[in-house]
């Protein structure tokens, strides 16, 4: 774990991220808040590409909780069976859809606590939905952010909650809205787990990672 970088270094890092891609986007396909919840829930231990392939034909016919209930669990499984843990995920999707219909009038709630109360929706999923759909600067810490934060010193922490707090505490507020997307994309495509592309990294002179592959 690297030490925590100072304010000026972090500001320069995110200034560079913003200059490279001013409006970073999440890579999960969705058409509304409900399909975003479902997509993120399905993405646990799966790739965004794999989820998008599975939902390509699903969301056109089941883009609301009621339509998903009408589709039924077995037909849902046919769409998502290429995704890991698909049977358990299908059960959770059906359960959360029932709760949304019965308790929320078919609408997705926009508080973290309400979202986390849904089956299959954890803190990371809730934060993704709050950030991407309601533009609330929630920080969804996944394996890419955890790795990047601890390598670079941008947001080091012993667990995902500590990393989330470090993001909120240390990244300047004008970068908070897009912070987790910049870090996810950087971790996914540059600061990779096994062979980080340090030689082409746009923040290599600011990063504290000691084993730079230059």
UniProtKB/TrEMBL annotation:
UniProt-listed CDD domains: ENDO3c (cd00056)
Pfam families: EndIII_4Fe-2S, HHH, HhH-GPD
EC number: 4.2.99.18
Keyword line: 4Fe-4S, DNA damage, DNA repair, DNA-binding, Endonuclease, Glycosidase, Hydrolase, Iron, Iron-sulfur, Lyase, Metal-binding, Nuclease
SUPFAM superfamilies named among the record's database cross-references: DNA-glycosylase
Name of the top EC class for this enzyme: lyase
Residue span(s) of domain HhH-GPD: 42-189
Catalytic activity, as annotated: 2'-deoxyribonucleotide-(2'-deoxyribose 5'-phosphate)-2'-deoxyribonucleotide-DNA = a 3'-end 2'-deoxyribonucleotide-(2,3-dehydro-2,3-deoxyribose 5'-phosphate)-DNA + a 5'-end 5'-phospho-2'-deoxyribonucleoside-DNA + H(+)
Single Gene Ontology MF annotation: metal ion binding
Keyword DNA repair in annotation: yes
InterPro entries: DNA_glycosylase (IPR011257), Endonuclease3_FeS-loop_motif (IPR003651), Endouclease-III_FeS-bd_BS (IPR004035), HhH-GPD_domain (IPR003265), HhH_base_excis_C (IPR023170), HhH_motif (IPR000445), Nth (IPR005759)
One GO term of the biological process aspect: base-excision repair, AP site formation
Keyword NADP: no
Cofactor: [4Fe-4S] cluster
UniProt-annotated binding residues for [4Fe-4S] cluster: 191, 198, 201, 207
Cofactor annotation comment: Binds 1 [4Fe-4S] cluster.
Role summary: DNA repair enzyme that has both DNA N-glycosylase activity and AP-lyase activity. The DNA N-glycosylase activity releases various damaged pyrimidines from DNA by cleaving the N-glycosidic bond, leaving an AP (apurinic/apyrimidinic) site. The AP-lyase activity cleaves the phosphodiester bond 3' to the AP site by a beta-elimination, leaving a 3'-terminal unsaturated sugar and a product with a terminal 5'-phosphate.
NCBIfam families given in the database record: nth (TIGR01083)
Family according to the record: Belongs to the Nth/MutY family.
HAMAP family the record matches: Nth
Protein name: Endonuclease III
Record organism: Cognatishimia activa
Lineage start: Bacteria, Pseudomonadati, Pseudomonadota, Alphaproteobacteria, Rhodobacterales
């Amino acid at each position: 774990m690297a030490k925590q970088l100072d304010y000026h270094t972090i500001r320069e890092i995110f200034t560079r991220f913003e200059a490279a891609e001013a409006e970073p986007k999440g890579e999960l396909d969705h058409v509304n808040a409900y399909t975003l919840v479902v997509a993120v829930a399905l993405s646990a231990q799966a790739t965004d590409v794999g989820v998008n392939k599975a939902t390509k034909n699903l969301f056109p016919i089941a883009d609301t909780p009621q339509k998903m209930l009408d589709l039924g669990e077995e037909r849902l499984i046919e769409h998502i069976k290429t995704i890991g843990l698909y049977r358990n995920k299908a059960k959770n999707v059906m359960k959360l859809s029932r709760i949304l219909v019965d308790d929320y009038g078919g609408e997705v709630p926009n508080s973290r606590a309400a979202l986390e109360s849904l089956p299959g929706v954890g803190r990371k999923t809730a934060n993704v939905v709050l950030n991407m759909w309601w533009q609330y600067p929630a920080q969804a810490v996944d394996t890419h952010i955890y790795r990047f934060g601890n390598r670079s010193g941008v947001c080091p922490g012993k667990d995902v909650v500590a990393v989330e707090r470090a993001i909120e505490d240390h990244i300047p507020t004008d970068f908070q809205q897009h912070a987790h997307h910049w870090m996810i994309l950087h971790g996914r495509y540059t600061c990779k787990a096994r062979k980080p592309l340090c030689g082409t990294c746009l923040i290599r002179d600011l990063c504290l990672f000691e084993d730079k592959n230059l």
